[in-house]
């Protein structure tokens, strides 16, 4: 009986000892594994840092100064509905106008609509900016131009013109709404009328050929005509897919865009924008309602995933990535337009590219907010 009791005691004690020992071993092993994982990850991040530069967002003046040496500054966006992108582009635009004599701003909107905004900043319309935008931008996707950041841009440029003899100008660069162009046909020999006529002719060319290439090629024609009409230093707000050098994209050798076309001829500075998570204003289908959507976390082997890791590692909400032209890193990069196809994001929104050759810098915001959707007077 005594022997049996001792056996039971020993068995229980050994079981407890083994459990404690295994727990200690597993804890040590897991600690060692995590240390190795962190070491590998940190090594990868540090290796990236040796070849690139991750600047705090308060270094934006340094970037703007560098960009100011060029005659063309292109400001992108990886979505058409992100507050942080609009706000940053607004601040950059103000600095370029106030400090470096940039005088012409293009928006990714129809020429005829932009021409109306230009009248406003030259005090030719007796209306406030909020009402002007709500009455002017009634078609899809109205939130792109009908939002509080464009209100601020308009009021800034209008105020600038009232105080300075050297004026600034604002135009739309797009050419897709042929009915709008037909409604604005005119015969005066000024800047506006010949461009409206050319938009109508170009629309047939876009329909019968490569629509994207014909569209961006016409953007160049508009810029050239404005440059001929008035000596200018230009700022363009448009999507990353337009303003980056498209030749950096993989398997898109027949595609051109305004970034590539300008870069071939002029001195340009290309600023891309990117985010990892958060919200976006977009529609589910063409012509659909603009709504706030949550952005999917970035896929593996994407620049967004890498940037997200760097941001978390350095406890940053945002940073400026300075591209290194000597790097030939190919990864996926996300491009969200006015439509966001969350369920089929890989096929709809990711493209393999080398962002170091596509842009000069990338403004990265880890978590972003949706753009307000054209409800300005309320």
Gist of the model:
The protein has 378 residues and is of the alpha/beta class. The chain has 14 helices and eleven strands. The longest helix is centred in the first third of the chain and has 50 residues, at 2-51.
What is this structure's SSE topology?
Layout (H helix, E strand, L loop, with lengths): L1 H50 L1 E3 L4 H8 L4 E4 L7 H18 L3 E7 H11 L7 H8 L11 H16 L5 E6 L3 H6 L8 H17 L2 H19 L4 E4 L2 H4 L14 H8 L2 E15 L8 E5 L7 H11 L4 E5 L8 E4 L10 H5 E4 L1 H4 L2 E8 L10
Parallel strand pairs: 2-5, 2-6, 3-4, 3-5, 6-11
Antiparallel strand pairs: 1-8, 6-7, 8-11, 9-10
Task: Write up what this structure looks like.
About 40% of the residues are buried. Helix 2 packs across helix 3 and helix 8 (about 190-210) runs antiparallel to helix 9 (about 210-230). It is built from 14 helices and eleven strands. The chain folds into two domains: about 1-50; about 55-370, 3-Layer(aba) Sandwich (Rossmann fold), CATH 3.40.50.11550. The longest helix has about 50 residues, at about 1-50. Strand 6 (about 270-280) and strand 7 (about 290-295) form a beta hairpin. The protein is α/β, with parallel strands linked by helices.
List keywords for this structure.
alpha/beta, elongated, Rossmann fold, 14 helices, 2 domains, two-stranded antiparallel ribbon, 378 residues, nine-stranded mixed sheet
Oligomer: single chain
User: Which structural class should the secondary elements be placed in?
Assistant: alpha/beta
Summed over residues and divided by their number, the pLDDT gives a mean of: 92
What is the second-level CATH architecture of the largest domain? 3-Layer(aba) Sandwich
| Strand element count | 11
CATH top level class name of the largest domain? Alpha Beta
Shape, please? elongated
């Amino acid at each position: 009986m005594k022997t049996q009791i001792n056996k039971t005691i020993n068995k229980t004690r050994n079981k407890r000892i083994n459990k404690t020992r295994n727990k200690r071993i597993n804890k040590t092993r897991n600690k060692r594994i995590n240390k190795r994982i962190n070491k590998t990850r940190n090594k990868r991040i540090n290796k990236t840092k040796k070849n690139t530069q991750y600047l705090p967002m308060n270094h934006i003046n340094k970037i703007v100064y560098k960009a100011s040496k060029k005659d063309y500054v292109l400001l992108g966006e990886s979505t058409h509905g992100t507050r942080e992108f609009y706000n940053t582009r607004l601040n950059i635009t103000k600095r370029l106008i106030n400090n470096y004599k940039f005088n012409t701003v293009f928006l990714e909107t129809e020429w005829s609509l932009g021409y109306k905004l230009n009248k406003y900043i030259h005090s030719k319309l007796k209306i406030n900016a909020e009402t002007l935008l709500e009455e002017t931008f009634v078609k899809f996707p109205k939130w792109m131009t009908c939002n509080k950041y464009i209100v601020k841009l308009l009021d800034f440029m209008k105020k600038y013109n009232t105080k300075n003899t050297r004026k600034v100008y604002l135009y739309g660069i797009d050419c897709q709404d042929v009915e709008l162009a037909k409604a604005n046909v005119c015969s005066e020999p000024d800047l506006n009328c010949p461009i409206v006529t050319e938009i109508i002719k170009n629309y047939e060319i876009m329909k019968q050929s490569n629509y994207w290439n014909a569209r961006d090629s016409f953007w160049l024609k508009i810029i050239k005509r404005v440059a001929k009409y008035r000596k200018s230093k230009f700022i363009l707000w448009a999507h990353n897919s337009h303003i980056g050098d498209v030749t950096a994209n993989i398997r898109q050798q027949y595609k051109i865009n305004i970034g590539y076309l300008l870069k071939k001829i002029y001195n340009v500075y290309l600023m891309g924008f990117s985010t990892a998570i958060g919200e976006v204003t977009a529609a589910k289908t063409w012509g659909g309602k603009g709504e706030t959507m949550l952005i999917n976390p970035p896929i593996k082997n994407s620049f967004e995933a890498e940037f997200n890791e760097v941001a978390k590692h350095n406890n940053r909400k945002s940073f400026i990535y300075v591209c290194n032209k000597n790097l030939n890193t190919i990864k996926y990069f996300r491009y969200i337009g006015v439509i966001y196809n969350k369920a089929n994001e890989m096929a709809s929104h990711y493209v393999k590219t080398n962002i170091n050759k596509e842009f000069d810098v990338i403004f990265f915001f880890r978590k972003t907010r949706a753009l307000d959707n054209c409800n300005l007077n309320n």
